[in-house]
Design goal:
The complex is a heterodimer.
Chain A lengths: L3 H35 L13 E9 L7 E4 L12 E3 L5 E8 L4 E5 L6 E6 L3 E6 L5 E6 L10 E4 L8 E10 L7 E7 L8 E5 L1
Antiparallel strand pairs in A: 1-2, 1-12, 2-5, 3-4, 3-12, 4-5, 6-7, 6-9, 7-8, 8-11, 9-10, 10-11
Chain B lengths: L4 H17 L10 H12 L2 H18 L6 H17 L4 H24 L4 H25 L5 H4 L1 H4 L1
The chains are: A alpha+beta, B mainly alpha.
């Protein structure tokens, strides 16, 4: 128990549990609001068991124009392509794009090739496009209800509450565009990324 | 002149590892390997510098998720650019402007390949990489045998 590797495992376990509690609290707050609104109409929804896999970042893509990290877990540890990755604070940071037996690669949200369908505010949907100079949500139908500081989020089946990516910083539309675009301020902007958690 | 090939090779290998491990993660907007390769292109003859440059850029492509070997193509282009300018720029300008021009070419090619047209990002990359070049230039010239670039390649290109 007092060996360095034993303590390290203990630290990883505690960090995983801590993040589970943070996400659980957010989930309960979200459910409380929902419950007040639909108390008589909806049947009670059981909280699903949250499954987080903690991983260490072992290397980065050598190009400065890519934002791809390699983690120390792979297929044999239960990692699958398409899993979402979050940081220690529960903010979305990327998704798994490549899985091998002992390692996997995660494309971060600000990689130029990153794209993901997301929700904005309470009901709008769009396509989030990554970029080194900032992240944008494209193809928003109507921006009538949208305002600054509205949350951008994704839904995961195993979690009742959403996972947040960031908030709206600017809503704009070019003259010859059919759709609105949104500039997003990401919540997770920590440049010193060493640990990630995968949501199953 | 005898060159310590193994020293050059291991220096570039360490620079590649620094790019992969990124000790400062994404807070540093520069690449160590390209800086080392530009150094080798300026100070070493073509028969040594080009194969080394191609080898290490191929390693970088193998690790990256790129579909085409863009780094190998870039390195060959930068090699010819450096050799073209090396004997056309004034002596005093070589140490200052040649690395900047080579890095600017590298930035431009990556810009268009990845579709990143952000001036701030590219400018930060250029500045950080140039500072890395100055530091690497000082450290590598102390430890490696380098020649005056005006003497080493003239006979070979002729």
């Amino acid at each position: 128990m007092f060996s360095p590797s034993g303590q390290f495992k203990e630290i990883k376990k505690v960090e995983s549990e801590n993040l589970s509690y943070i996400l659980k609290i957010r989930e309960l707050e979200y459910l409380e609001k929902d419950n007040i609104r639909l108390r008589k109409a909806l049947s009670f929804k059981e909280n699903s068991r949250l499954n987080l896999i903690g991983a260490e970042v072992i290397s980065f893509d050598p190009s400065s124009w890519r934002r791809i990290i390699t983690i120390n877990l792979g297929d044999q540890d239960g990692v699958e392509k398409g899993l979402y990755a979050i940081d220690e604070n529960g903010w979305f940071i990327g998704k798994v794009v490549n899985v091998k037996k002992h390692y996997a690669q995660i494309m971060l949200v600000n990689d130029p090739d990153f794209s993901l369908p997301v929700f904005v505010g309470s009901r709008l949907m769009g396509l989030m496009k990554g970029g080194l100079s900032g992240v944008t949500v494209l193809y928003i139908d109507e921006a009538g209800d949208l305002k600054e500081k509205d949350k951008v989020w994704v839904k995961v089946a195993s979690l009742a509450s959403p996972i947040y990516l960031g908030e709206v910083s600017r809503v704009y539309k070019n003259d010859d565009d059919l759709f609105w675009n949104i500039k997003v301020n990401l919540f997770s902007e920590n440049p010193f990324l060493h640990k990630v958690f995968l949501v199953k | 002149m005898r060159y310590d090939l193994y020293k050059i090779f291991f220096s570039l290998l360490i620079l590649l590892l620094l790019d992969i491990l990124k000790p400062l993660t994404y807070s540093l907007h520069g690449e160590f390997l390209i800086v080392g390769i530009i150094f080798v292109f300026i100070y070493y003859p073509a028969r040594i510098s080009l194969p080394l440059g191609i080898f290490f850029s191929y390693c970088k492509d193998a690790i990256s998720i790129n579909v085409i070997p863009i780094n190998v193509i870039e390195i060959v282009f930068i090699f010819f650019l450096i050799k073209f300018l090396l004997y056309r720029l004034p002596k005093s300008a070589v140490r200052i402007f040649l690395p900047v021009i080579a890095l600017a070419a590298y930035v431009l090619i990556n810009c268009f390949h990845f579709g990143v047209l952000s001036f701030m990002f590219n400018f930060r990359f250029l500045v950080n990489s140039y500072i890395l070049f100055l530091i690497s230039d000082y450290l590598l010239r102390k430890n490696l045998k380098v020649e005056n670039p005006y003497i080493s390649d003239y006979r070979i290109i002729k």
